[in-house]
Amino acid sequence: MPQADNSASTLFIDGEWVPAADGRTRQIICPADGQLVTTVSEAGAADTERAIAVARRAYEDGAWSGTSAWDRGDLLLRVADILVRDKAEYARAESLDTGKRLVESEYDMDDIAACFRYFGKLAGQDAGRLVDTGSPDAISRVQHEPVGVCGMITPWNFPLLQVAWKVAPALAAGNTFILKPSELTPSTAILLMKTLAEAGMPAGVGNLVTGTGAEAGQPLAEHPDIDLVSFTGGLHTGRKISALAAPTVKKVALELGGKNPNVVFADSDFDTAVDFALMAIFLHSGQVCSAGARLIVQDEMHDALVDEIVRRAEQIRIGGPFDSEAETGPLISPEHLRKVDDYVQEAVAEGGVLRTGGKRPEGERFANGHYYLPTVIDEVQQGSYAVIEESFGPVLTVERFTDEDDAVRIANDTHYGLAGGVFTSDPAKAQRVANRLRHGTVWINDFHPYLPQAEWGGHKQSGIGRELGRAGLGEYQEAKHVYQNLRPGPQHWFSEK
Ligand code: NAD
């Protein structure tokens, strides 16, 4: 069973565990209680550049890109089996790094194994397609090839899930990669590299650098030997990655933030609407890119719905990852706690009505963790800071609407477009609204389900490209057109004189 490495040799380059070239390390601290989790290597640009050179060599030698897609798929299926075998160890490591409840980390591990299984099965199914040339004397096909060397940069909220959405399709397509997970939550990425090696991944195909974005991450966007940079994180960083990647015209895939509407019509089942509104925003203390942070409720149901959400929010039990009573956990860091609190203060200063929360919970047991109370801010105005900005914390804002057109207009009034929910007992209305929402995923009478076989990604400034589904594999492939003349002979395009 893999163990997180405590010896601070946590860079995985060319199949070897090595320390940072300059010997720097970083302590990983549990956000729930401030305890030391582990110490990892702090890579600098030189380490990442070395990993890029290794991944380039491994790509060019064809030891992975030249294998059959079925064999690559088999490796991913073996990875899924190991993830199931070692689920307890993985989930514990994820919870220690993030502070999230153990049961939620266990769900994440199930989703991660399912992701590897999906891409493992998909890998060998698509040999490209024949194209009609219009001539019996020529054949033409479009085939899919790996993009090459992929740089992957991931966030801290679903650390290994976000990694899996990149690593599984990248390997299925025959790429090599360098992964830079969030500097706050590297433990499960370290475990994954051990699992990939155990499953038979050749040395140099998958490489890991643990460190900060500015130092270890930036070369993955800038370096000419990176063919694709795939980034998941905040909008501000995504813009920067895009700009850094532009001079080398590499492929760029961005999974960014969201300011996700949850539209509740007055004909919804009341208890269901309350239940999902709470789950949509307060799951993992709102640190979910697709969190239903904007409750947009029809006038007739507004007062009763908000009263009940406030009552229930005040009963949510907060605690650490191994507290079996806890229903939600801490924020990731003191900096993030400050950011969430600043957001709340700003929302209230501009006229939002604070109905509950807006501060840290009291009590000794919360003193060493970054906890924040579930917060509800009513009567926020369109165009205001509270509506535009992502808090990425346990903060629900409430807006009202009158009719269907009004609901769609308000829900689309954001520069983000990641996900949204619609609650109504009228199936035709639900479909009409879903079709009009400019968001990459729409849930009807539900919130948050992700399926590995369904594309995930953002409209507008929530991103570029898609993860999961067939398009998620396509992200890591180049299409090549191969045309063959079956009866070659002079064409006499130019005269012979
Ligand atoms: P972040 O943008 O601060 O960091 C994400 C990653 O980028 C980290 O690994 C970080 O080290 C790295 N990074 C930072 N600066 C960099 C630079 N200059 N060059 C290269 N890499 C750099 O985001 P975060 O705080 O870790 O995550 C929260 C954000 O992620 C939220 O906005 C959330 O909505 C978004 N997110 C989106 C999705 C999605 O699927 N769309 C999923 C999860 C999280």
Mean pLDDT metric: 97
Strands, total number: 20
Q: Structural class of the helix and strand makeup?
A: alpha/beta
Output the strand order for the largest sheet: 14-15-16-13-12-17-18
Helix fraction bin: 25-40%
Query: Largest beta sheet, briefly?
Result: 7 strands, mixed
Could you tell me the radius of gyration in angstroms? 24 Å
List each distinct ligand once: nicotinamide-adenine-dinucleotide
User: Which stretches are low in confidence, meaning pLDDT under 50 for 5 or more residues running?
Assistant: 1-6
Kindly estimate the percentage of residues that lie in beta strands according to DSSP.
15-25%
The number of helices is 15
Shape: globular
Q: Give the termini separation.
A: 76 Å
Protein name: Aldehyde dehydrogenase family protein
Active site: 255
Keywords: NAD, Oxidoreductase
Organism: Saccharopolyspora halophila
Question: What does this entry look like structurally?
Answer:
It is a single chain. Helix content is 38%, strand content 19%. It has 15 helices and 20 strands. The protein has a 7-stranded mixed beta sheet with strand order 14-15-16-13-12-17-18, sandwiched between helices. The chain has a 6-stranded mixed beta sheet with strand order 9-8-7-10-11-19, sandwiched between helices. The protein has a 3-stranded antiparallel beta sheet with strand order 5-6-20, with no helix packed on it. Helix 2 (69-85) packs across helix 6. The radius of gyration is 24 Å and the shape is globular. Nicotinamide-adenine-dinucleotide binds next to helix 7 and helix 8. Nicotinamide-adenine-dinucleotide is lined by residues 153-157, 162, 180, 182-183, 212-214, 217-218, 221, 232-234, 237, 240-241, 255-258, 289, 390, 392, 418, 458, 463.
